[in-house]
Batch of 4 targets.
Target 1
Amino acid sequence: MRGEGRPLPGGALVLVVLSAAVALIAAVSLASFGAPSAAAADPHAPCDDGVTGITGSADLVTYDAGSDTITAVCIKSGANMFNGEHKLVTSDGVVANCYTVSGIGTSKVKVQRTGTAGPDCQAISHIDVLTGPAPTPTSTPQAPEATPTGTPAAAGATATPTSTPHVLGEEEAPEQFPETGQGASPSTWDGLALVLGLSGLGLLGGAAALAAVAVRRRR
């Protein structure tokens, strides 16, 4: 049975102490300096997905994207410029009072050092460009032309005559309905027939009464 509390050999003790010291130093280094930056991991960030490492002279670099459109440029110059990293530029203009960028949005871009050369305006190391497909032109529909008023009819077209309604004159005016005393309306004839019918019945009744009286006298 192995005994408890047996001391480690001298060599093993030294190895354990050294391992602990290395681990402590590594932890302090990471805390002080941090993890490697993205720029160190990819030297062309943030234009690493484009065309990188385009060189020219210390004062001028150009690039032709052909049928593509340049959407952005990254400028890389000396360690004093942009903390030694790439400077992303997305529109034309002057950058850091040193570089003039022109051509973004087209197929050809130019980066030129227009400032005074010195520690605050260092030589251009290289540029990187981001490109995209050229925009599709959109056509604007044109409004139809208005036809001017009074335009003569096309040759061969037959004009349709327009008929004007005839206005009746005084001699052609329709005959007015007869006034009272000059004729009788249908309602007047109906009343007259009723009166004549009643009168006829009265006369027949009177004649029958006279006939009955005559018969009695004969008896």
Target 2
Amino acid sequence: MVTAVTTAQLVGMLLVSIRVGTFLWIAPVLGGRMVPARVRVLLAVALALPMTPMAVSASGPIPLGAGGLVWAVLENVLIGGALGLAVLGLISAVQSAGSLIDLFGGFSVSQAYDPMLMQQSSVMGRVYQLLGAALLLVTGAHLLILQGFASTFAVLPIDGSLDLEQATGTLTTVLTTMFLSALQIAGPLIGVSFLADVALGLMTRVAPALNAFSLGFPLKIGLTLGLVALALPMLPPALLGLSQQAVDAMGAIAGGG
């Protein structure tokens, strides 16, 4: 049995693939820079195939003219980019927490090359980034994010237009939430590091010959490593909460929240 495929369906799949591809290009883990471009393109097409029937049925007439098609492509690139930035901003709170731990724990003097961001990054920031990526896949949070992304086609179809005011407001809220979440994740470790600095300062005041600050770096590094090990069980629930917030942010950008 041969099923006929219309031009409108092919154009609809193209538009869905463009939105998915733009989203994956920005969103973490599935479309990071560590994933080759060819793999990202194939992954975008593979994810677009099951989303196309729902997206085509939820949209109005598919634009087939040159002008309407170009406008639809630009709109879907903009929509996919906004949705990807919402996810990237919230999931990056985990890496930001690691960078804060580096700053207060004494690891900031050591920098490592980050192939995902193509720049130098701190040690704990890199560790937290890799842990976040692994937990995102292990806990199934990536499926939650993809499900939330697929649901945006029903609210904001492939022939729809993005509300820039709503998207800008949501992304601003995402940025604020990222900083607050990073402080919540790294806050207890930062507090203990601060108390350790106070204790070392008091020791130096009481016994100047002890030169406590020369011992401070290895002590703070060991303390930070121990606290990170104790705080790791708290990371999966925090990541799941951030993933749910990312889904809510995508719904708000699409106009459903």
Target 3
Amino acid sequence: MKIAILSQDSSLYSTRRLKEAGEEREHQIRVIPYLRCYMNITSRRPSIIFNGTPLENFDAVIPRIGASRTFYGTAVVRQFEVMGVFSANESQAISRSRDKLRCMQILAREGVGLPVTGFAHATQDIDGLIETVGGAPLVIKLLEGTQGIGVVLAETYQAAKSVIEAFRGLDANILVQEYIKEAGGADIRCFVVGGEVIAAMKRQGAKGEFRSNLHRGGNAEKIDLSVEERTTAIKAAKAMGLNVAGVDLLRSNHGPVIMEVNSSPGLEGIEKATEMDVAGKIIEYVVQNAEPNNVKDSIKY
């Protein structure tokens, strides 16, 4: 099978592992930097051109679209879909999950557990916004932030008010969420492939750090999920329409709550913590499902 990995950097761990896993299974794997592609959009013979040559005869693509490149990256994925090429994650699902607000609204509609969340832009009623999530301590996020950037823990009412006022001065969209103190600075990454949780790890933030991102000094270990946690992760990925997803959740006093659903989850942390061939599982899923014009996304929002 001929598979394209859409990635800007072939040296990244996740890209390398996917390429290795595909080649180990005797498939033709090609890494394509999607920003260097351009498209010929016609009604009968759409195409994607890279280095002056049309990209043809691919059976499937595996998108590894950077958060800051979502618009163009999903346009390339969508063009492959127009050409009838199967995508591990469809363009619509990637776009849906990348919009944090839209993601949370969809999960709320589907009844998936979430932290109590408020959303605002230029409201003057800061007191009301803070009370919406039960007061301080609370977490304040820039809607456009990634990898823990633009995320602030406000431990007091006055701190929360000051941060919200500062963010409002940036003309920014703001998410305000209850602080799940009982999580103890840890979250759980559930790796979902084809509607199944194939691996899970607990990520613990560094001492004094409430964010559990591994690149911020956190550590990870394999963990066993409860039935409720497993069901919640699968439901969240399905709600986004994602076949491959990293679902991040917290253990709260009122059950598992979703923090994020990632359409291009990194493989390094999960493979090292669980010693599982996650890249191989992704390749196997793609091979089993790669049929021409196999576009399944029917979610209406």
Target 4
Amino acid sequence: MYNYAQTTKKYTESEAGMTKIFIDGSAGTTGLRIRERLSARRDLELIELGEERRKDPEARRDALNRADIAFLCLPDAAAKEAVGMIENPAVAVIDTSTAHRTANGWTYGFPELGGRRAQIAASKRIANPGCHASGFLALVEPLVRYGAVSPQAKLSCFSLTGYSGGGKKMIAEYEAQERDPLFDAPRMYGLGQEHKHLTEMRVVAGLENSPVFCPVVAPYYAGMEVVVPLFADMLNGDAELLKQIYRDAYHTSPVVRFAENADEGGFLSASAFAGRDDMQIAVTGNTERIVLTARFDNLGKGASGAAVQNMNLLIGAAETEGLAL
């Protein structure tokens, strides 16, 4: 058995006051972005493994149990395996995979949704939201919670994302010198309505039915635009009520903001928030047909930025420390 008591004593005595961070999966897209955000922080110490030890199970086990906070930037199965390696009860985990987003004992890491900020700060197991799910939930969860949308509602959603959301393999495909011409236009995927974000979209929003979900990857690097269209007769209220709900839900948030007017000359660009860690919520349309839109960076509030925000809450730092807003 791993001797976490001995290890914790050793590092607490030598590095008092520093929060020790280990990123398991630091070579992936999300892990690299988290490391970039944390490397300049003077309140943190990064536990790093060299290339030759990065996949060594015992080296990982040691690092996971030495950390105050472990970020898991791994596929689902590997994330579950990593959690099983942790025997030190003092270690807090922020898992960026899909593995634990609706699991018992895990806190869903979207602070802006009702009551979750305090839960995150007190939790040892935090599941970082999915990128598409972040936009959908920012739009829908407050409406269900305030009673403007019924839990029985059958919604639809489409979501545009830059190709960086597909990780290193997709980035390489899109940036290849002689790429497939089909990559030159937006491509819909998740065609079987079994996208891995659907479960958290339904459960966390408080819906009884998963939405009809149409994710689309487009030939630009980063940025996300999640859209939920509604007919007015689907609501307990009107567009003005929805705007007021968003004002009330996000008026104290330093990261998610409701925009009274997001119009960009009749357009809304999906890349408007690329390189940033905040999110913009907008309501457009007319009295009969209403369009809800969330715009953010799929690598920011949709991934690594959200993970750093959750870490800040855990350690009592300013919520936006190290974020690009």
